[in-house]
Write a structure and sequence with these properties.
The structure holds two protein chains of two kinds.
Chain A: H1 2-10, H2 13-43, H3 47-61, H4 65-79, H5 92-122, H6 126-134, H7 139-169, H8 181-191, H9 196-224
Chain B: H1 14-43, H2 52-55, H3 61-98, H4 102-117, H5 120-134, H6 141-167, H7 171-179, H8 184-215, H9 226-237, H10 240-271, H11 287-295
The chains are: A mainly alpha, B mainly alpha.
Chain lengths: ~230, ~300
């Protein structure tokens, strides 16, 4: 046990845990922003925008996250040398890896956010919109008073699933050297292979702690605000 | 192309049509400008990613025969073996979780919930080092790592699919089975399970897309998959970006085809009047959750 706590301090596991949380939160915000734009395009009445939304979702969702992370880290950062950090700062490399990692995670999960939002809109029966128009509401009130409130409620559960998936997928950016939990897991196992099981359990528990409450909260929330039909 | 949803918008009148035309023109211009910026950036002499020298290797047979196709083959091999083992494991776990034996059901439940919360990569790393340090496999440790990592995660997901598939069947099915003298186990195997698997078939095919994408994680533990093959190849010509675009296109073609198969299955099941779980396009990385949450409203 003492050996394990020694490893935890030596490899800054708490810091790595915090890094995972940071990656998740920042990428979730990015994915929400991009995903909302894509979803708006996808349900818009303009053909070109709908085409763009569908193309974005189909291309991104069918590409492995590993490839997207590589594309930003090795392609955009290394080959095209587009930097997101001050080149003179001492932490420039780490900053760049973190920021491009966040971009990759945001771009990838935006496609799932967009699909969640669209499926939320799809849960609203057509009769709701017709009823809103029938009682004389014009376009904006029927959208803001009748349709969108129901659509957001329908989107909560899939959005929660996306957040849980994002938390787990944040491990992929360890490939480009972001010091999050799975990165340190690799280092710890290579340093002391005899603690393999303990290290695995430690890392696994970190993720159970992160994902189970979030999943349970979103399930509770989606039931709580579910539209009774 | 007609609107996929008329929920949000009325049939456009003359004014709205004029407005849509303006938005269309603006959108096309913005998209073209963005595309132009990307092309200009790539063609920039400092980067020169669009020169023939970087793209012509893809016309040589050796590129495909030596790097990309072997890589694709080992990606498909790992994905195929994983999905077969995951279906077997998932069916067993799903039945175990639905069993009337409380202990068995609890063990399967804990197993499923645990391995669904652990990232595939963490599981792969563990399996890889397990093969290396505990089993002392002489070779193929990365293959072992990839397959075991994928199987543990995906059999948990499939177990949840089975559970929600059985849960979505009418209660009368099991009762009718018991009434004609079948045991609980017989009713499960002969009546509930065949229907549940048929109903969840589209989700199972969609899960194949997830498995195929996750196989690319094998790169991290040194598995020679498509991504690794492509990267090795690109160091010869210094054409990393073109190679990545080609690899992405390969993944997209395969996965998009699989998604379309799932959608077609979904539609044909609906025509036969069965509840088909969720449409494939609502699935995210964790379809069991999606299926469960869909059942809640």
């Amino acid at each position: 046990m003492g050996e394990l706590t020694d490893l935890i301090t030596r490899y800054h596991v708490l810091l790595a845990f915090w890094m995972t949380v940071k990656l998740t939160v920042v990428s979730a915000l990015g994915a929400l922003i991009i995903g909302t734009i894509v979803a708006v395009c996808r349900v818009s009445p303009v053909g070109v925008l709908r085409w763009f939304g569908a193309a974005y979702v189909n291309v991104i969702r069918n590409t492995p996250l590993t490839l997207i992370v590589f594309f930003f880290a090795f392609g955009v950062l290394n080959t095209l040398s587009i930097s997101l950090a001050d080149p003179h700062s001492p932490t420039s490399i780490a900053d760049n890896n973190f920021r491009w990692g966040v971009v990759a995670l945001s771009v990838y999960h935006a496609s799932f956010v967009a699909e969640s939002l669209r499926s939320g809109v799809n849960t609203v029966p057509l009769g709701q919109a017709e009823a809103a128009r029938a009682i004389g509401l014009s376009f904006v009130p029927s959208l803001t008073e009748v349709i969108l409130p129901q659509a957001f409620r329908g989107a909560i559960a899939p959005l929660g699933n996306t957040l849980v998936a994002l938390t787990k997928n944040s491990t992929v950016v360890s490939t480009i050297g972001v010091a999050e939990i799975s990165y340190q897991m690799k280092n710890m196992i290579e340093f002391s292979p005899h603690l393999l099981y303990a290290i695995f359990l430690l890392v696994a528990i970190c993720f159970v702690v992160l994902t189970l409450p979030v999943g349970a909260f979103f399930t509770y929330l989606s039931r709580r605000v579910a539209v009774q039909r | 192309m007609s609107a996929p949803t008329t929920l949000l918008f009325d049939e456009p009148g003359p004014k709205a049509r004029a407005r849509h035309l303006i938005v269309t023109v603006v959108a096309v211009v913005v998209l073209l400008v963005l595309l132009g910026l990307v092309i200009k950036g790539l063609a920039n002499p400092r980067n020169s990613q669009l020169t023939a020298a970087k793209w012509s290797p893809f016309l040589q047979g050796s590129t495909w025969a030596d790097y990309l196709l072997p890589g694709l083959l080992s990606t498909l091999k790992a994905a195929g073996l994983s999905i077969v083992l995951s279906v077997v494991g998932g069916v067993l776990l799903g039945i175990g979780r639905l069993s009337t034996n409380r202990v068995l059901s609890a063990i399967c439940g804990v197993f499923v919930e645990f391995f669904r919360s652990v990232p595939v990569l963490v599981m792969m790393l563990f399996a890889y080092y397990f093969a290396l340090y505990v089993l002392h496999l002489a070779d193929n440790q990365p293959f072992f790592g990839v397959v075991v990592g994928l199987v543990f995660y995906n059999s948990s997901v499939i177990a949840e699919l089975i559970r929600s598939g059985v849960g979505s069947l009418p209660g009368g099915q099991r009762e009718a089975g018991l009434a004609i003298g079948l045991s609980e186990g017989q009713a499960m195997w002969l009546i509930l399970l065949p229907q549940a698997i048929t109903a969840m078939l589209p989700s199972l095919v969609s899960q194949l897309v997830v498995v195929l994408k996750d196989t690319a994680l094998g790169y991290i533990i040194g598995y020679y998959d498509l991504v690794r093959g492509g990267q090795t190849f690109s160091t010869n010509y210094g054409n990393l970006i073109p190679t990545m675009l080609v690899m992405a296109a390969m993944f997209i073609v395969i996965n998009y085809t699989l998604s379309r198969v799932a959608q077609a299955l979904e539609r044909s099941l609906q025509r036969r009047g069965r509840a088909g779980g969720l449409p494939a396009d609502q699935l995210i990385d964790n379809p069991a959750d999606a299926a469960k949450s869909a059942a809640s409203y």
